[in-house]
Design brief:
Chain lengths: ~725, ~160
Amino acid sequence: MGHELEQFYAIFFEEASELLVDMETHLLELNIESPDLEELNAIFRAAHSIKGGAGAFGFTDMTETTHMLESLLDKLRKGEMAVNSQMIDVFLQSGDLLKRQLGGHRGDEGVNTNDVDGVVNKLKEFMNNPGNAPSAVPTEPEAQIEIPTVAEVVITESVVAEPDEACTEAKPAKPTYRIQFACGEIKPNLMEKLLVDLAQQGQLNNLSTAEQPDCCVLQLSTDVSEEDIWEALAFIVDPAQLVIEKQTAAIAIPEAPIVPTAEATIAPQPEQVAQPIPQAEIETPLAPPPALIADSQTQLASPQPQVPDPAPKKVATAEPKEAVAQKEAPKAASNSESSSIRVSIEKVDQMINLVGELVITQAMLAQIASQVDPILYATLLNGMTQLERNTRDLQEVVMSIRMMPISFVFSRFPRIVRDLAGKLGKQIELKTVGEGTELDKGLIEKITDPLTHLIRNSLDHGIELPEKRIAAGKPAKGTITLRAFHQGGSIVIEVADDGAGLNREKILAKAQERGFSIHDGMADQEVWMLIFEAGFSTAEVVTDVSGRGVGMDVVKRNIQTLGGRIEIESVQGKGTQMSIRLPLTLAILDGLSVAVGDQTFIAPLNFITESLKPVAADIKTVRGSRQVVHVRGEYLPIIALHEVFGLQPSCTEIHQGILIILEAEGKKVAMFVDSLLGQHQVVIKSLENNYRRVKGISGATIMGDGRVALILDPAGLVNTIKQEMVNAA
Amino acid sequence: MQILAESNQGMSELAHANIAQEFLTFRLGNEEYGIEILKVQEIRGYDTITQIANAPEFIKGVVNLRGIIVPIIDMRIKFNLGEATYDRFTVVIILNLSGRVVGVVVDGVSDVIGLDAEQVKPTPEFGGVLNTEYIMGLGTVDDRMLILLDIEKLMSSTDMGLHD
C-alpha cells in the first residue's frame, strides 16, 4: 500500500478503535431494565460510524458485521425489541470480533470465518426471534471472541524452520501460534511438563522434526494470549531464543477434526523431544546453530516464508496484499507511535487557556511598561519586547496543537466518489486542492458528514450522465473539485462540479409546491438557498444516494452550529459551487463587540447581516408597543438588548443607537444597542461550567483588559421575539 | 500485621474525631460564619464584574479567574446581612465545590480555626431567611459563636439558582 494510503488507513484504524472502545463502554453502562435511549443511540452511532469508515476503505467483512449490529440496534432504539443481557453479551462479542477484524486489516492476525459466522448468526437469531436468547449458542466461537486482540504478529524464535506439513494440515479455529525455541539445553522432564502445560492451554501440535533435534517447533491453537504463552514458556526457555508467532492462518475450516488430531499429536511429543535432548546438552551452548541463524535472517528480510503457504488462500478476511504487508505494518505503527503522543483534548484546552491568560498578562505589562522612561529602563523594555515575542510564538504553537490538515477529511472521498459514480453510471474525476490547509481537530470531525453529503449531492444531482454531457458539448467525464484554503480568519472549503447547475425555475416550482414563501423577484442567491430548506428535494427519482429531502437542511444546520456559513454559486449548464466558510477553530469566534450601558457583549459575526444607524422615520410601531424598523422594503422587529437583559442603556431612543440585523433560524431581527465597539476574534469560554445556562447567551469570553464579556446567542434572541409574539397574541 | 493495622485504623479514627475540621471564618454584618477550609480555593479582592441577565439580585455576575468564568454571589444580599458595599476591603472567597468554582462576597475573612467535635453544638430550630438545613452546627471558640455552613449543600440548592 502506498505511503499516503497507509496514513489514511491509520486514521481509520485509530478512529475505529476509539469508536469500539466507546461502544463497549456504552454497552457496559447500559441498564438492561430500562435502557437509556441516549446510550442506545450512542452505541448505534458508533456502529454506524465504523460501518461508514469500513465501507469507505472496502473492509467488507467489518461492514457486514456492523450492518447486522446496526440493524439490531436500530430495532432496539426504536423500541421494537427489548434488550436482554444475552444480547449485550453478543454485542460485546461483536465488538471484540470487530476489534479483531480491524486488527486483521492492520496487519495482525486475521479472523477466522467461523468466529464471524458465530457472531453474525447469533445476531441474526436475535433479529428473527426477539426476546429469545439464541438457544444453540456454540460455546466455541464465544470463547474465541473473548480473546484479546493483543495482536502483533506471532512469536518468532531465533530459530526458524520452514513450517512443515503438519502445520498446513492442522486446521485450528482458534488463533494459532507458532512457537519455536532451542530445546537443546532443556531437561527432558521439564520439556515434558512444558508440553503438557501448553497442551492444557489449547490444541498443541508438535512440529519438531528429527532432523533438527535441538529445535523444538510447536503449533498451539489457543484462547490464551501471546503474552501468556510467552510467560508460561519464559520460565523454562531462554526468552532470547524463543519465538512465538501468531499465524495469519486463521484457517476457515470446521473445528470438528481438531480434537482427535490434537490428542494424537500431543501424545508423541514428549518422546520426540526427549530423544534429542541428551545430545543437545552436550553439543549446544546457548547459541543456535548457524543454519538457524541464517534462517532467521532470511525471515527478517522476507516475511512471506513465515506465513504458511495455505494461509493467504484460506484467510477469508484479510486481503492478500494485507497478508503480505503484515510484517511491515506493525513496524510502521510502532514508529509512528514513538513520534507522537496522545494527549487528552482537555489538557490541550487547559494549555490554550493558560496561554491566553499569559497573553493578557503580557499585554497588561506592556501597557504599564510603555509609561516608563525608556532610557532609564532600557533593559526592562528590552525584556518586555522579548517577552512579547515569546508569548506570541508560544500562543501560535499551542494553537497549532489542535490543528490538523484537511487531507484527513478529503482522503475519504476518492473512494466514495468512485463507488457512487460506478453505481450511478457516471464518469467522474475528483480533484482535491489545498489538502494541507489546517483546521481545528474538532471541526475536522464535524465537517466530514456535511462534506460527504455535499459531494454525494454533486454526484447525484450535479454531474449529468455521460451521454447528456456529450450532447451538451462537455467531456463525458465530469469533474468534482474539492478545494480548501484560508481566507482571513476562516477556512473556506469548496465543492465545485461542472455539471448541470441549479435550475431556477425547477427550484421555484418545487418551492411553491412545498409551500415556501417565494416571489419572482428573488435573487439567484436566495433561490439557491431554498435547497437548504427542510423537506426540499428536486430529484425526480428518489435514489439511495440522495433525494429524500433530508440532508441539505441538516448540512446547513450543522455548518451553522460550527459557526460557519454556506454559499452557493451556480450557472445553469456550467456547474455549481458550494462554499463552506468556517472559523479556523471552534475555540475562537469572530465577533462584533457592542456596548449596552456599561456592559460589553459579543455578537457572532456569522449571524450578522448588517448594522445600521436608523433614521427616526424608519422606526414604526405595531399595535402601539412592538417596534419595527423599515430596512429596504422589509419590516424587521426590534429587540432592545437592554430590555432583554434588564440593563440601564445610555440611549433609549432607537435612532440614537445602532441596529444590528441578525439572521438566525430563518428569521431576521434588528438588535438595538448603544454603540459598536469593534470587531474581535474572541476565545469562547463556557459559562455553564460553573453556572447555569442563560437565555440569549451562548457563552462568555475574556476581553483584552481581562474583563468578561458575554457572547450573544442570536438564535436564542430570535426565539425570545417569537415567544413574545405568541404571548402577545 | 492485621491486628496492628486495625488498631492503627482505630486510633486514626479516634484522632479524627478529636481534631475535627478546620474552618475558614468570615463576617457577614455582625455574624461570624465558618466554612470548611478544604472547600476554599483562594481568597481575592472584588474585581469588576460582568452582570448576568435576569439573575437574582445576589448573583452579582461573573468574573475571569485565570481564564475560567466564575459566578460571584453576594452572601450579604442572600442572607440579608450587613451593607452590600464594594470597596477595596471587600473580599471574595473562591470555593471549589466538587469541580465547580464559585465566588462568594463576604464582609471580611477573619482566620482559620480548628474545631473539636465537642466544640460544635447542634443548631437550634429557628425560622428566618437561612434554612437550618444548610447549617452544620454552631461552633464555639471562647465567647465567639461561629455559624458553620454546609456550603456545598447551600450552593447546590435550587434557590441559589447556580445550576440548571
